[in-house]
Amino acid sequence: MATVVDVLRHGALEGGVRYRGGVEARLTPEGRAAMDAVWERLRDEVEVIVSSPLSRCLAPARDWAKASGKPLVVEPDCRELAYGEWEGCTHEEIEARFPGMLAAWRRDPSALTIPGAETWAGFAGRVAGAWRRLLEAHEGRHVLLVAHSGTLRALLAMALEAPAASARRLDVPYACWSRLSHADGNSVLIWHNRRPDG
Q1: Whole-number Å distance between alpha carbons of 30 and 36
Q2: What CA–CA distance (Å, rounded) separates 120 from 150?
């Protein structure tokens, strides 16, 4: 029997778009509503919820688990990439301090390391470890993983056996909802960036 994993990125955050990594930030009301809309579609199917420890993922996951009685597992290795000196910065602030580096990193995050940050290889490795543990612990079940854009990018690149540069070619907006299926050692992307009303 296949393991089905729905992956949900957190919704929009207060303070606008920034490279937050491990920086905590509150969901906007609209961001939380977008996540809740996906949960409403999934709550009768999902058997277990797995979440990043960061509150923008964990707070809604904890509320859904409590309301539904579904088990909740906190997976530290599904947290966002640690952005080092980019933590908390906007695109404009990064460009002002590190001219050209953001564009180069977006072309291929494995080709350079942000000052003081986690390497893409290290990040992808820990996400891969989290994925293996999830599949082993919940084989044949339907799982909801609540995480971050970087986590989702790394996971999809790995599942598709695609190079690291391809991770930045994926559109991963707030509350992005994707589905993977895993069976016989192979992961398949069923859909990407589905809307709950679609």
Answers
A1: 10
A2: 10
Domains in the chain, start-ordered, CATH in brackets? Answer: 3-191 (3.40.50.1240)
**Structure token digits, residue 55:** 């509150």
Rounded distance, CA 83 to CA 122, Å?
A: 12
Read off the DSSP letter of residue 26: P
Answer whether 0.90 is exceeded by the pTM: yes
Active site residue 10: yes
47 in active site: no
Phi, psi of 149 (to 5 degrees): -65, -45
Q: How far apart are CA 129 and CA 127, in angstroms?
A: 5
Q: Which of 10, 138, 148, 182 is catalytic?
A: 10
pLDDT tens, position by position, 37-84:
999 999 999 999 999 999 999 999 999 999 999 999 999 999 999 999
Catalytic residue, chosen from 75, 80, 138, 182, is 80
- First-last CA distance in the chain: 26
* Pairing label, strands 72-74, 48-51: parallel
